[in-house]
Batch of 2 targets.
Target 1
Amino acid sequence: MTIQEVNTAYSRIIAELDRKALKNAFDDLLGLIAGTNQYNFQDKLNELQDTYKALLHYRTKGVQDPMQDEIYQKIQVSAYELAEQVRLHILTRQSSAEYFAKRRKLQAEKETFRYEDFIRVMHDGLNDVPNPEGVPPRKRYKAALSLLFYKIWVSDRLTSAEWSQIQQIMDSQLLPVSVRCMVVSALQLSLEEQFDVRKILLLIHAMHSAEDEVVIRGAIALLLALYKYKNRIALYPLIEEELRNCRERYPESVKATIQLFEKITIGFILARETEKISRKLQDEILPEMMKLDPILGKKINLKDLTPESLSDEMNPEWQDSIFANKNFGDKMIEFSELQMEGADILHSTFVHLKNYPFFSEMCNWFLLFNGEFFYVNTEYEKMMPEWKLFDEMSDVSFMCDSDKFSLFFSMLHLPEETRKMMFGQVNGEIKDFIRENKDEIVSRRSKTEQLSGRYIQDLYRFYKLYPNHAEFDDIFAYPLDFHNLPVLAPYFSNTETLTTIAEYYLRKNHFQDALNVYERLLADNPKEEILYQKAGYCRQMEGDWKGALKDYLRADLLNPQSTWVIRRIALCYRNLKQPEQALEYYHRYEALSPDNLSVQISIGHCHLELKDYNEALKYFYKVDYLDTKSHRAWRPIAWCSFLTGKYDQARNYYKKILGERPGMQDYLNAGHTEWALQNMDKAVEYYQKALQEEKGDWTKFWEQFKQDIPDLKNAGIEQDEIPLMLDELRYRL
């Protein structure tokens, strides 16, 4: 089998096991095993099938066995694990991917390092303790850290002894925090290739470390692992039991863990926006910042607004939420606002600065940018003073470690004199300013937000920019809705956390994700009007007008005075082609806000849809009389005038419309009007211009024209005249 065939077969087997189709999974697993020539795999599969057949036999005979559920669960676990073993066995021999190449290399070298050896070797390296091999201690430390990372990354399922030894490394106070961080990142990447309950238990253990950096990485790695294996986590009750035990052992940390999981979830929601923000920065914000044109914001609304152009506006009353005083809807979001929110505004800046040799080594993407790096890498040790100032400046800018390394290596390419001059310009006053204001700037986001946000950005760069990133399953391509995982329900069950997550989804236009959370909130808060409003809005933005109407009607029952809801109900009825019901709600709105011209024009449109053209004209006339600037009533007045046989009036309005910014439909309607007045030559002229607006596309023109044929007939135009007019138009073209 080719590598692609192996991966395809494996994915199919896992999908079958996920939906508990064990017979199909066994059949496909048999085909995967066939090419391995490993009889132990075949024996294991035969054993599983025999056990499963016996289980089915006893169940069909009605035999009650209290152990049946436990046996069935063990069969599923063994099937998953066997499938993973077979895949790893085949690809370790065939695949050129970095993971399997590294597995082969470590197996061939037969390195004898046990996990507990790393503590001694790295401790000696950091303390310049000589070694019998004569290798410089710091160089030996660097090599040991790299080996430790790769050894964990490519490891099989851990034995009890290995699990205990890695835990000792994570707990050792002889080693710096960067080592524990690297161990956690290696565990995270290892779990992407193969499920291992002991590795997950190590991540839970890491979450109770004394160092915030280790806690953050442990929590992120745990959430990612639980998400990846969400369909089989229930088969390992030990995981849920350990989480429960941690809540009981560390009751004081439960609230902090809930907040941490919330911040991580929000961090991944924000990560979805990275490419969009990069485009916005490059295409909109930075060019406008360069122009520094304060008048630009006043020139946004340059075109006629349709009556319901504001239909997708969020309710202004929602600003009382966590996003108060932030203008999320404006295209010109300020650079600093994006930064303070925690958005990844630097990705586009550093995307082209990942080509240094440092980034070709996978483990380097997970290093902390701190003094230890300069101590171990002696060639950079002389830059320690510059690094300390640089680190202070980059902390204020919320720069992740990966980007700090990018900037550092970029600076190395500058002549030494230039580099010193640059840092020399940061005189004492500026240094003092940074140090005095750092706490204030950084405090706007909690330490948890900063650390989790930075590590998520480090991961984003790895999965998007690492030279071999295509070999990894891009975690950022998935929803990562950790709050929907049953095993994490105790951490995502409170209203405050769910509301915060839903708000971020809503403000970032992830409407289906937001709706899922609002539905959960409504189950516990069925009388919360705002929740129905937001659920309805999400359904509306997803095009579910019936569902939106249902939610808006419930909100209306709870608060009949909300003009925002009343108007949305009317809009739903209009989109559901029920103008009579829409009129009822527009009139309710009119009673509460009689001077709202947009509603007046919407009422006119409802009458237009009901073919009550004279009544529609009354409202359009009113809007035209009171609104002397936008002229938004001209088009409906012109069309209603045509439909009611007031052709001269229609002509006058179309002349005014064509004198401003006409479109294809304007020329088409003006042509109809001239035809009704028997001004054939002018009618053809306008039809030509309508075609020009469609770039000569006759099909598009005809699609619009044929819809108006019944109205042309009502205007006295004979059916036989229509093909003649169209042929005349073709000749002129």
Note: Residues 292-307, 322-334 have pLDDT under 50 and may be disordered.
Target 2
Amino acid sequence: MKEDDFLGLTLTEKILKAHLVDGEFVKGSEIGLRIDQTLTQDATGTMAYLEFEAMGIPRVQTEKSVAYIDHNTLQSGFENADDHRFIGSVAKKHGIYFSRPGNGICHQVHLERFGVPGKTLIGSDSHTPTGGGIGMIAIGAGGLDVAVAMGGGAYYITYPKIVKVELIGKLSPWVAAKDVILEVLRIMSVKGGVGKVIEYTGEGVKTLSVPERATITNMGAELGATTSIFPSDEITKEFLKAQKREEVWTELKADDDAVYDEVIKINLSELAPMVACPHSPDNVKSVNELGKLKIDQVCIGSCTNSSLLDMSKVAYILKGKTVDPSVSLSIAPGSKQVLNMIAKNGMLSDMIDAGARILESACGPCIGMGQSPNSKGVSLRTFNRNFEGRSGTKDGQIYLVSPEVAAASAITGYLTDPRELGDMPEFLLPKEFEINDNMVVSPAPAEEMESVDVLRGPNIKPFPTTKPLDDKIECECSLKVEDNITTDHIMPAGAKILPLRSNIPAISKHCFTVCDEEFPARAELLGESIIVGGANYGQGSSREHAALAPLHLGVKAVLVKSFARIHRANLINAGILPLTFKNEDDYNSISLGDRLSLDNVIEDIKNGGDLKVKNLTNGKEIMVSCELSDRAKEIVLAGGLLSYTKSKLSK
């Protein structure tokens, strides 16, 4: 893509137009994009590769596809190890690069070693937009969408609104990139980015390094945004040069006369250290507003804040100090590259001397894989989500902060403003990173792929069976939930449940147990049912298991006030009807156990998606909407994306 191919456009529009394969550029319409790269991680990867296998395509069609092992690295039984072996063998057979456990968190490693400005990337993890830090259109998606893209199919999104976030000024000492995205979340909220791309511009961009930009784009997922993006400039070039990948760099930026749908201006110079309070990333206050909060735990790492730059700041703050006796401090460098470099330059020793517990380069506590806080414990985390129960402790009080706030607070035992540390030195990225890709396994050559055996363990079960849409749905409401239900509510993570990600029948027994422990048994007994929910239903992780588990339990439709983007797409992919109330007040017209009926479903879907729901229990009738693109209609009618894709391939 050349910079002068398109004129008068945003950077987002330039990349989207260069990859358009289906549809037209009309706001709110559906467009299909050519996908250059894909990534998966092990919590979603097994199912994605089972889906890819089911399509019968021998080798991936993308420029680069990478399978990462970073989520399920706690091997307390055979399940995770079997999944890793399966993914490694599938990758070797079908043309996918395999990042072994210990090589690092997918988004950190992909930024370092594989990301390319101007390319499109989709990943079966909601924080894939991290790649926007180097000027990619990087989007989180369900595993089935990723499987289709690996097979050469287009990835479909709603043509987004584009929000310009103009950055001016420069961050003050000890104020961080994390504070920038927390400020954006404070302004826009966790549902303010739905249907939008967040594009960062302005002179302030030049003051931010690539790792800082990646922190900001990473947490754009918490806005509900399709993705976030920074321009690719000289700072991007220097980062890629230091990674010995300068040849992939190209300059990319919006045109001076680009038109945006919304504009937000943030003066970096005016920001202060911020905190996202329990239990939502947009519940943002300043450190000073919260005051002297006693803490029990500090966790530093995750795909949001585990770069070499972050580790450098943490090591500096901890050097020569001792972690407060009442605080447990754990640190997880984001990649083998980062861990190796802090080991060689002495920073790792500074952390260990201070009393930090060093974790492997993986997602760890962020996904609930270890380090759960004590009951009612106050935990400061440099992560991206603080949903209730996500830490593994149901009543844990999780606060999201920058690495600077986290490290300073670990020393004092209280929430601490890092500006109290005094002068801040200049933290610079190295001219050259340590490059050692020996933990990335290349796929077998095409001529050898037939001889590669795919290794399956007993916990790996097939994709759930689907069937074409029924014209009449009549069943009970098996669950009614409130606003802002997350995919962690629907399909919890954590060390006990994550190993079941390859086994939909087993993991379904945990579906919605955070909200109602009786739901799985009730839904299974009913055979077919409908779930009713509030606004922003399905926010959070891209995990398609939050759709596949309800599918296995017989859920035919989900009726809510509004959906989060990825989860709605995952429901469609699973063949579950995503319905929204025409009048949100009708939410109060349905109770748990009410018997609901929908007639002429197929005809109504084909004719625009206005359907009538009859509440047979109380006699009320309500209108609901199921607005779908022509392609999405075909997917739902076929019983899901896998059935739809297989039928297309057979033709």
Note: The first helix runs from residue 11 to 18.
